[in-house]
Design a protein that fits this description.
The chain folds into 4 domains: 2-110, ACP-like (Non-ribosomal Peptide Synthetase Peptidyl Carrier Protein, Chain A, Orthogonal Bundle), CATH 1.10.1200; 136-357, Rossmann fold (3-Layer(aba) Sandwich), CATH 3.40.50.12780; 580-689, GMP Synthetase, Chain A, domain 3 (2-Layer Sandwich); 716-950, 3-Layer(aba) Sandwich (Glycerol-3-phosphate (1)-acyltransferase), CATH 3.40.1130. 41% of the residues lie in helices and 19% in strands. The chain is built from 29 helices and 35 strands.
């Protein structure tokens, strides 16, 4: 008996598995057909949501149910059309229908609220890492579900050690999200984090993600002596990001208030503490893999910030590649002092550790700078297995850590010490290994890496089980011919580069010459890359994005050569100095000069200046020094000339001895060569910065002036909006009764058309129209993008002939709009109820078959955020059935004129572009559904390209 029961159980399980596989195959097939032009990526799973994950609208669901019924030979209930949210819901309905063989469509769908959460399905999986997580929120939730109380972060502070478990991080993030949403922060709005390394940084970052907003990390002020430069740089960043809120510490509130005054749209300055007040739980924001996970601002001038857009998918692709190459484990320990407002600290240290499940031991960068040995002792105390830092950090340990400071130090647990984020010095690696080998440091631990914000963080990684590879080449040959010719280590003109490894998994790199051709082995070229970690571009900087992207490849801005399968980074393209036909690499000059007594190491900049008389560049070396004696300065200048001559074989054209803090640096300590060069050209070297109170006073003055200008602009805006609404009200009083009394919709349309043109003239609204001659003479279907409530008005002002507008059913609730629109011949449809949407699609098909010209917004709705939404399939199926041409129409500027949720219109130019008519291509098997899908994809592609070319805001 038991054996028979067991056999039946195995058979039932096998049947269920087969049924599940067949169902997923049907859903996958439809999904692939719908997205063959622009695949969303990934595979269909039982808990994939039909709308959000798969993008199936009501007509696509109808098609799906028909295919499921044909595949399984069953009749499924109509309620399933609206109730089913995932393939698992369909599977349960199939199980129910198979248990009731005589079930008909009228029978109710089985009750019960199935758990359709992907996270819930993943919680039952037994995996070492969240391999199926689509977002960073999924990653954290995966860990909370499995080991909520496990310590994730150990924070080393002046007042002792603090720990954060996964549950602590989740609870803190929820409180932060509630605070943001209570202040009115909307999904996809930017929120800046200006915090030091503290527990609130971690919870604030995740809280912003939970609220559906976009984190923008910025660094706190380092020195009050440079407060004015700091504020103006950050004001440019926050303005570019359109930041609405800033999270900071109470001590920085005065600075934050200045930023609030200088940045339009920055409405809230939020201070945080470990004890956030509990607020009512807001509705959870929907976050997808292609949503922005944060914007990383790269170094730039004050008014020229470039924000690298990184999505959840980008970050997870990079983190998974790092995990794969470095073979990270959950029992590893990452020890870091790296700032959290930069990619190496945020992604490389924290988010990578969060994904793997290993502990992160983190301390303030200021603690490391004051006592570099604290970093080394933390590695021993917590059994650190991994760490990372720029080259200067290892140099700092060599210069400032004394033997007495590390007596008893043990670094045997350290498997990886990544050296990156700036040029890696072969000399630094060899000296660091030699110095700390007696303390257990293995030579293979020190590893050169290469990455950039445009690829999330990592691009090139070396194998973690071998020492760093140093390539010694002939300097003269390399500088003149770009060929990396190997020479002996003791060669008098040797140049050394450190191998940074190979491209991380699923990513590619290539090296190009000046003509765009790939270079051969050991020939220097420009490094380009591509892969799932790569950014889509710079935030609201389309021109800079165009410079970054080349035929699907991204320009790193660095030069490199390949040898023996390894990539060797040689320098930044913009920093290379070309003098007399030679390419000079500034970082080598800077390192050599920085070793001289009297020169501040790490505070030397070499740059080129155009020399029109000689037709080349002059080499200028600027070095900071504390020397004030004239004789000592003269000797130091001669020593610099001699050192540069020893390195290059030629002296520099000019040596500049500058006071402390002259050299401009980024927040991560990188040299800002272009900014330092500009300072020298402007004659600002040697000038003492104004006192902090004077800088603060100037900022206050600028803030007051900005507020006055903003108030004046706001007054003008209010007056214009008042005039706009007054004209609309007066015209409505005249036009509405006339349209309501006219016996034919065509007459009402023509009258309303002229009234709309009069309204635009009275309000000074400029409307540019292109392509009017492309409208076909026969009945057709206009398909316009939807950005604002004013889109219909613009179309009415442009189109002279009568069209049957298709509008949402909700407008029927307004009696004024209902009467007016009905007398214009508007057709109202249901957008939300699935069965009503199907009936509406059938009604559109009937109108098309009757030869009516239609005007439709295929997105069905609009939102404040730019970009096209998904297109409903109904209009395209109607066009296919009626063999009706469709005409894409591009509206640009209406979102800026009156955005979603706004009531005060702005003056903004609007353009309307009519594209060429398109017809459906008949499917080989006569399948109208397939033809409609292809037509939809073709129209959307045309509109997507047109909006990108015609109006950047779209």
């Amino acid at each position: 008996m038991d054996s028979a029961r067991s056999t039946r159980g195995v058979e039932r399980a096998a049947d269920a598995a087969q049924r599940s596989a067949r169902l997923l195959s049907v859903v996958q097939g439809l999904y692939t057909e719908l997205n063959h032009e622009s695949p969303r990526g990934g595979t269909v799973e039982l808990d994939s949501t039909l709308d959000r994950d798969l993008g199936l609208d009501s007509l696509a669901r109808v098609e799906l149910l028909l295919r499921v019924e044909r595949t399984f030979g069953l009749s499924l209930p109509e309620e399933l059309l609206q109730q089913a949210q995932t393939p698992r819901d369909l599977l349960r309905a199939l199980d129910w229908a198979m248990s009731w063989p005589t079930a008909k469509a009228a029978r109710a769908w089985p009750a019960g609220e199935p758990d359709t959460s992907p996270r819930a399905a993943e919680a039952s999986a037994d995996a070492a890492v969240p391999e199926r997580a689509a977002t960073l929120l999924d990653v954290l939730d995966w860990h909370v579900q499995r080991h909520a109380d496990r310590t994730q972060i150990i924070l080393l502070a002046e007042d002792g050690e603090h720990t954060l478990s996964y549950a602590d991080l989740w609870r803190g993030a929820q409180l932060a999200a509630q605070q943001l949403q209570a202040l009115g922060v909307q999904p996809r709005q930017a929120v800046a984090i200006m915090l030091p390394t503290c527990a609130d940084y971690f919870t604030s970052y995740y809280g912003i993600l939970l609220a559906g907003a976009i984190p923008v990390p910025i660094y706190p002020p380092a020195r009050w002596a440079q407060i004015e430069d700091h504020v103006r740089r950050h004001a440019g960043i926050l303005a570019n990001a359109q930041t609405v809120a800033l999270i900071t510490v109470p001590e920085a509130v005065p600075l934050a208030r200045l930023l609030e005054a200088l940045v339009p749209g920055l409405r809230h300055v939020i201070t945080v503490s470990r004890q956030r007040a509990a607020l009512p739980a807001p509705p959870p924001a929907v976050v997808a893999a292609d949503d922005i996970a944060f914007i990383q601002y790269t170094s730039g001038s004050t008014g020229d910030p470039k924000g690298v857009v990184l999505t959840h998918a980008n970050l997870l692709a990079n983190i998974r590649a790092i995990h794969e190459v470095l073979r990270l484990q959950s029992d590893d320990v990452f020890v870091s002092w790296l700032p959290l407002y930069h990619d190496m600290g945020l992604i490389g240290a924290w988010l990578s550790s969060l994904y793997t499940g290993n502990r992160l031991v983190v301390m303030s960068p200021l603690t490391f700078l004051r006592r570099p040995q604290s970093w080394l002792w933390a590695i021993q105390r917590y059994g650190g297995t991994h760490t990372a830092a720029p080259n200067f950090a290892y140099e700092l340990c060599l210069r400032h850590v004394q033997d007495a400071d590390i007596d008893g130090l043990d670094l045997r647990t350290l498997r990886l010490a990544a050296n990156g984020a700036e040029p890696v010095s072969a000399d630094t690696i060899s000296r660091f290994n030699a110095r700390f080998a007696p303390y257990g440091l293995r030579p293979e631990a020190m590893t050169a890496v290469y990455g950039l914000a445009e690829n999330s963080v990592a691009l090139l990684l070396s194998s973690p089980d071998r020492p760093a590879i140093v390539d010694t080449i002939d300097r003269e040959v390399f500088e003149q011919t770009h060929h990396a010719q190997p020479v002996a280590e003791n060669h008098p003109h040797a140049l050394r580069f450190v191998a940074c490894g190979q491209a991380i998994p699923r990513h590619r790199v290539r090296l190009l010459d000046d003509l765009g051709e790939e270079v051969a082995e050991r020939v220097e070229g420009r490094l380009e890359f591509q892969g799932p970690s790569a950014t889509s571009g710079y935030y609201r900087r389309p021109q800079e994005t165009q410079k970054l992207l080349h035929d699907g490849w991204l320009d790193s801005g660095d030069r490199a050569y390949r040898a023996g399968g390894e990539i060797y980074i040689t320098g930044r393209v913009k920093d290379i100095i070309i003098r007399g036909g030679r390419n000079l690499y500034p970082h080598e000059i800077e390192l050599a000069v920085g070793e001289l007594p009297g020169v501040r190491k790490g505070c030397v900049v070499a740059f080129g200046v155009a020399d029109a008389a000689r037709g080349t560049e002059r080499l200028v070396v600027l070095a900071e020094t504390r020397e004030t004696d004239a004789g000592a300065r003269a000797q130091l200048r001669e020593a610099i000339v001699q050192r540069v001559t020893d390195v290059l074989g030629e002296p520099p054209d000019e040596v500049v001895l500058a006071p402390v803090h002259t050299v401009r640096k980024t927040s991560s300590g990188k040299l800002r060569r272009a900014a330092t060069r500009q300072l020298w050209l402007s004659g600002g070297v040697g000038e003492h910065p104004a006192a902090a109170w004077r800088q603060f006073a100037r900022l206050v003055q600028s803030a007051i002036a900005m507020r006055l200008r903003r108030a004046a602009a706001g007054m003008v805006h209010v007056l214009y909006a008042a005039w706009w609404w007054l004209m609309l009200a007066l015209l409505t009083l005249v036009v509405w009764p006339i349209v309501a009394l006219l016996p034919k919709p065509a007459w009402g349309w023509r009258f309303a058309h002229h009234a709309a043109r009069l309204f635009l003239w009275l309000t000074g609204q400029r409307l540019q129209v292109q392509g009017r001659a492309k409208l076909p003479p026969q009945a057709h279907m206009l398909l316009a993008n939807h950005s604002s409530d004013l889109d219909g008005l613009m179309l009415l002002a442009v189109l002279p002939g009568p069209y049957r507008f298709v509008a949402k059913n909700e407008l029927l609730r307004n009696p004024v709009a209902r009467v007016f629109l009905r007398h214009l011949g508007v057709e109202f449809i249901e957008r939300f109820a699935a069965q009503g949407s199907v009936a509406a699609a059938q009604r559109i098909g009937t109108l098309a078959a009757q030869g009516e010209s239609l005007c439709i917004f295929p997105e069905g709705t609009f939102r404040r955020d730019p970009g096209l939404l998904g297109f409903h399939l109904g209009p395209f199926e109607a066009a296919v059935q009626a063999d009706m041409p469709v005409v894409p129409v591009l509206l640009c500027g209406t979102r800026e004129l009156l955005a979603d949720g706004e009531h005060l219109p702005h003056w903004h130019a609007v353009s309307l572009t009519i594209e060429s008519a398109m017809r459906a291509q008949p499917a080989p098997d006569g399948n109208a559904f397939d033809a409609a899908v292809r037509l939809r994809d073709a129209v959307r592609a045309v509109m997507q390209r047109g909006l990108a070319n015609s109006c950047a805001p779209e």
